[in-house]
Amino acid sequence: MLSYSPDSDSCLDAAPRVGDRVTGLRPPTDEALRRPALQVTLFDRHLREDVARLFQLMDRLGTSALAAPQAGLDLAIAAVSCHGVRVAVVNPVLYDVVAGVNISWETCLSAPGRWLVARATGVVVTGRDERGRRRHLAVDGLPARCLQHAVDHVRGRLPVDRAITSSRPPSKSS
Q1: Rounded to two decimals, what is the model's pTM?
Q2: Interatomic CA distance for residues 160 and 51, integer angstroms
Q3: Closest alpha carbon to 77 in 101, 105, 46, 113
Q4: Are 139 and 123 in contact (CB under 8 A)?
Q5: What CATH number does the domain located at 3-167 have?
Q6: Could you report the per-residue pLDDT of 69-100, keeping only the tens digit for each?
């Protein structure tokens, strides 16, 4: 398993450098969106600032889910803010709760268009918060869908990878 610590010289080719913090979105064509994110090993002030910036970017963009790789930081952080659930999970591990499957349209900041995606109606996620404390969260409904979407990004997956069908925006020539 890859991991990143600012004090480590390992994984330097894949790890963000000093100054490569959360500032905006990666373009949809960025190949980094297709790579699994690095596991976080150092829970410090910089990580807490990155999580705060993720939420600021989410709020500014009006989105309900965002993963650090989408925001230019190759770390395993999934953030969700919808239906009263506002949480960031570091190094998330997702477990489907077999309560059912919901098929619904999703949009994505990293993949233009709309994607019809089947998701578990309820999930449990474990990981850490931005201070390194263990986190265990069970959610259902829209927060579960948003969390699954964000964790997919942490794993290097896009909605197109799970899509049953898509509805692409019209081309600029039409």
Answers
A1: 0.81
A2: 26
A3: 46
A4: yes
A5: 3.90.45.10
A6: 999 999 999 999 999 999 999 999 998 776 78
